[in-house]
Specification:
This protein has 557 residues and is an alpha/beta fold. It contains 14 helices and 20 strands. Helix 5 packs parallel to helix 6 and helix 11 runs parallel beside helix 14. The longest helix is centred in the middle third of the chain and has 17 residues. The chain binds alpha-D-glucopyranose (GLC).
Amino acid sequence: MSGTAPWWRDAVIYQVYIRSFADGNGDGVGDIAGIRSRLPYLKSLGVDAIWINPWYKSPMADHGYDVADYRAIDPLFGTVAEAEELIAEAHRHGIRVIPDIVPNHTSDQHAWFQAALAAGPGSPERERYVFRPGRGPDGGEPPNDWVSCFGGPAWTRLPDGDWYLHLFAPEQPDLNWEHPEVRAEFESILRFWFSRGVDGFRIDVAHGLVKHPGLPDLPPRQQPAQQGPLATADPSQEGPQQHTDHPHWDRDEVHEIYRAWRKVADEFPGDRCFVAEAWADTPERLAAYVRRDGLHTAFNFDFLMSSWSAKDLRAVIDDSLGMLGAVGAPATWVLSNHDVMRHTSRYGRTTVKRWAVNEPYRPEGPVDLELGTRRARAAALLMLALPGGAYIYQGEELGLPEVEDLPEAVLQDPIWERSGHTDRGRDGCRVPIPWSGRTPPYGFSPEDASAAPWLPQPADWAEHTVEAQTRDETSMLELYRGAVRLRREHPALGDGTLTWLDAAEGVLAFRRDPGFVCVVNLSATAYRLPDHTSILLASGTAQGGLLAPDEAVWLSV
Ligand code: GLC
């Protein structure tokens, strides 16, 4: 792409789930020192930026998504000085740094919430959150029927009788974004980190900040369905995607907040950027977040939620490019993150239909990891060939599967408790990364570590380590390295447009100019490759001009 377009239009951004990436101090939990020690690895992978999950001071009720102080780093991860050193060092490697900001809620240990508890009902301190009296004769019923994304009611009652809202865990009280102090505080936090050199922010639950002022009950059809990755199934929600007015998700008024944030980003030199975690129910609704005066980019979860079907994927690609292109925003593509089942394990299952935003992302039933891995390799080539930016979740480049047999005693995700032990939660995609060696901790922690990794790593991960895969040209890691390198070098890749080519049913084939074609075979039979001058990269063998099922190639034409 041209040298003048902003970097974020086609960046490859690597997601660092800090607890599980690399442990520098040997306490079994990943940290900033660990990230710094692995910058050469990230450089070798060729990524443009890293997004780091929350690193702020936190009691860790939701592993950092419960922030007690947005201007401090949790001692588990390091210090603000170390964060500044990481940012500078990453920049020297040509890697940008994007922390996560959590504006929908704070921790219950945040100074504001503590002040609200102390000040009592009706106090101005309570107005920065969403406190309400209860319903029923003695106020013993919650103010409305909203449900927590982690299970159970979204309200908790205090001994003084008041109820407070938490769309997630009770340790994560929702802020009141109608309050001017809340708005001013977050703009100040953004400036705090922008002036320390961060290149942007990933915005957590970006679609949740504004609530309907009357806090009405959920519309009957949506109960008890929830929106987002943590939802419970509701078969009544099947069918074409439609937008329905919801009292706390994706309300129009939220965009005003982001117009103000955009102005803050624009105060700083360089191209700072935002990426929204916004679960919108149509591509049009998602595009509203990335209009010219709003945020820069948003995760495209429709791609992640799509089944392994050429028809479904093509529809998602066309809708995303169409809707986002109409507002001048680049598309983003994402296959996995810290909230969903790893895609080798998803694709290894026979889920035929597209997931909806209100379905659980942890499909059950037997898994065929060989199949899932073959598809994951093809999906990587598809994702990295599409116009726009792409996200790689740590470990996907190693082909890690979901760890589905973690013993119950080690599960830590609040979903496990809140669901009454019916949903194992997200720990299975958060197991610490295997770097080297034949046995746990596989180089995740230093040799003299005082503690084991915070989640146990499988005994059979020796073949998944970075060490084992490096220079093995058949490995997932070298496939990613090759694809990211080619994507950087090839003038057709990155930002731009695509043209679909005629292909058999179940085959996706598209051209990007100049001279590039990507073919993905999602059908059950081998497919003859179109005319080409050479094969640039193949997820499988692509022998004899035939592309086997569940394989992809990049062609020079
Ligand atoms: C987002 C995060 C998830 C977190 C939740 C509450 O969905 O990605 O990990 O639990 O928000 O902050």
